[in-house]
Specification:
The complex is a heterodimer of chains A (296) and B (285). With 296 residues, chain A is mostly helical. In chain A, 81% of the residues lie in helices and 0% in strands. Chain A has helices spanning 2-45, 49-54, 66-112, 118-129, 133-147, 154-160, 164-177, 180-188, 193-204, 206-222, 225-230, 239-252, 259-281, 283-295. In chain A, helix 3 (66-112) crosses helix 6 (154-160), helix 3 packs across helix 7 (164-177) and helix 10 (206-222) crosses helix 14 (283-295). With 285 residues, chain B is an all-alpha fold. Chain B has one domain (46-284): MetI-like fold, CATH 1.10.3720. The chains are: A mainly alpha (296), B mainly alpha (285).
């Protein structure tokens, strides 16, 4: 009797544990796929050019050449890689800051004021969310070419400051996170609108602000098509455009032949590390941002 | 007062969304000739796109790409999201974070890494095949290139779509699961009959984004052009075509028309898809 009552329970928990292990194993399989190219990149970045060709790609070579490769990377072509890194930081940070500031201010207007044309305007912005940045690249280039603004960093930074999804996120965020009574109390106390925005609203919605900044920062860091078509002076290139130009040179066997390969590989590694670190540190921000965007 | 808060965003929006579109449309109804200058040609450029084999070759490449890659990627993302949400796995947080990492990698760099992995120079698959005395696989041929590209895009965006599904799954009240299990529904039945219909808005969103992303494909194939120039020509995708028309050949009028037709094609496919599925989604949800 006791046996009959206990044993199915044990059997069930054992099978549950087995299914838990099986699911975890399946997820591990996909994790291996996810990390496979990154592992390959890390391994390849530690190899000398001869090891790259003579040793197996998925394990380390004879020499640990990471430091030498990094040195090559930062001296190659008069050290232009450092310039690209700096450009990328500069473009991404200014675009991120501009996007976060303009989206926060606009989101605040949509959330806390009623004005003529509010919903029509907001509808237009929602439509714009569906226009991918890529679709605007060729038209933006045509306009910049007409105004003579191609080959200028501003031609990359200013278009990257537009974040319709950021306006949407900030509107939702402010509607839910900022109490109207608080604003009214401040108005009765005689605080100006700008002061209310800066010292009452802004601190309350810092997490949303950081989310929009992060999303625009990463989008600009990873952008390729726009800077490729707008910029032609190598000193203005961001990492993506610079690396891609080296990739082509290396594939054509130009630019010093084989020496290029290890430089390109370690350059790729250096270009992804900052964003990955940013994502790991600011986890809750991007998860919050994506969640808000999809649930509503 | 609200207009002051709106001003910075609206200024940028008008300058870099509205103005480029308006100007590109204006450009697309003219034709520039070396002798004779600029002529108004109405929709002649559009008619030319409509019968341009280069443009439609790119579209048909990407349509094939879309009907194979998008379902695989979204199916994977959905399965991963449901499994992670159910929670009977070890180290859930690690998986959720790990799957998302590729999203932080620029698509150009992703294509660069995979390009070397595929490649014959020092790719591990070529090395393995040679070591075993087998003919090395050719991932960069005319026949295999679309699949190689599909793998790169799947690698990049499965985790991103999973995060969207995961967030939507978290929004489903947990007492629904208890109620379903009291009624005797297993995990599969719960996933199919309860979760899927409730997830439909999120799924539709990711499908539309994927249709959009697929037909706009540029970075990955353009990057692969460096190592396989014979396979990826100047019109492998419509955006590559528009790029070469505008930046390399200065055919601004025609490039603008190509961009607009591409926009129409995307809007038409996304719209048709939404309409076709709305009825089904409407009755079940």
């Amino acid at each position: 009797m006791t046996d009959a009552a206990v044993s199915p329970g044990i059997g069930r928990s054992r099978s549950l544990r087995r299914s838990k292990r099986l699911t975890t194993a399946l997820l591990c399989l996909f994790l291996v796929y996810t990390f496979f190219p990154l592992f390959y990149l890390v391994v390849a970045s530690t190899k000398s050019n001869s090891d790259l060709f003579s040793t197996f790609g998925l394990w380390f070579g004879h020499d640990f050449n990471l430091m030498a490769n990094l040195r090559d990377l930062f001296v190659y072509s008069d050290g232009i890689f450092a310039r690209w890194l700096l450009n990328t930081f500069l473009y991404s940070f200014s675009a991120g800051l501009g996007a976060a500031l303009s989206a926060t201010a606009a989101g605040y207007a949509f959330a806390k004021f009623s004005f003529w044309g509010r919903e029509v305007l907001f509808g237009a912005i929602l439509v714009a969310v569906m226009i991918p940045q890529t679709a605007l690249v060729v038209p933006t280039f045509l306009l910049l070419a007409r105004e003579g603004l191609t080959d200028s960093p501003l031609g990359v930074i200013l278009p990257s400051m537009i974040s319709p999804i950021g306006v949407y996120l900030m509107r939702v965020y402010i509607e839910e996170g900022v109490d109207n009574a608080l604003l009214d109390a401040a108005r009765i106390d005689g605080a100006g609108e700008w002061r209310i925005f800066r010292s009452i609203v802004f601190p309350l919605i810092m997490p949303g602000f950081v989310t929009v900044l992060l999303l625009a920062f990463v989008a600009t860091w990873n952008n390729y098509f726009l800077p490729l078509i707008v910029l032609s002076t190598p000193a203005y290139f961001p990492l993506t455009v610079g690396l891609a130009s080296w990739y082509r040179l290396a594939s054509m066997g130009n630019g010093g032949g084989q020496v290029m390969f290890s430089v390109v590989l370690v350059g790729a590694l250096v270009s992804i590390v900052p964003v990955i670190i940013l994502f790991l540190i600011l986890q809750r921000f991007w998860q919050g941002g994506l969640a808000l965007g999809s649930v509503k | 007062m609200p207009y002051l808060f709106l001003a910075p965003f609206l200024l940028l929006f008008v300058a870099f969304v509205v103005a480029p579109l308006v100007y590109a449309f204006y450009t697309s109804v003219f034709r520039d000739t070396l002798v004779g200058g600029r002529h108004f040609v109405a929709f002649a450029n559009y008619l030319r796109v409509a019968s341009d084999a280069n443009f439609w070759a790119g579209i048909s490449n990407l349509l094939f790409f879309g009907v194979t890659q998008v379902p695989i990627m979204l199916g994977l993302a959905l399965a991963l999201g449901i499994v992670l949400d159910r929670g009977d796995v070890y180290a859930r947080g690690l998986f959720r974070l790990g799957f998302f990492i590729p999203y932080a990698v620029p698509s150009v760099v992703a294509a660069l890494i995979w390009g070397y992995i595929y490649g014959p120079a020092f790719g591990p698959f070529t090395q393995l095949a040679k070591g075993l005395g087998l003919p090395p696989p050719d991932f960069l041929s005319d026949r295999t290139m679309l699949f190689s590209l599909a793998n790169i895009v799947t690698w990049e965006f499965t985790g991103y779509n999973m995060v969207i599904y995961y967030a939507a799954l978290k929004a489903i009240p947990s007492d629904l699961r208890e109620a379903a299990s009291v009624d005797g529904a297993g995990s599969w039945q719960y996933a199919l009959l309860i979760q899927l219909p409730l997830l439909w808005p999120a799924i539709l969103l990711t499908i539309i984004f994927s249709i959009n992303g697929t037909l706009q494909l540029f970075n990955e194939p353009y990057q692969m052009r460096s190592i396989a120039p014979a396979v990826i020509g100047t019109h492998y995708t419509p955006n590559i075509y528009a790029y070469f028309l505008s930046a390399a050949n200065q055919q601004y009028n025609y490039a603008a028309a190509v961009s607009f037709v591409l926009g129409f094609v995307i809007a038409a496919i996304a719209g048709a898809f939404t309409l076709a599925t709305n009825r089904r989604g409407g009755t079940s949800g």
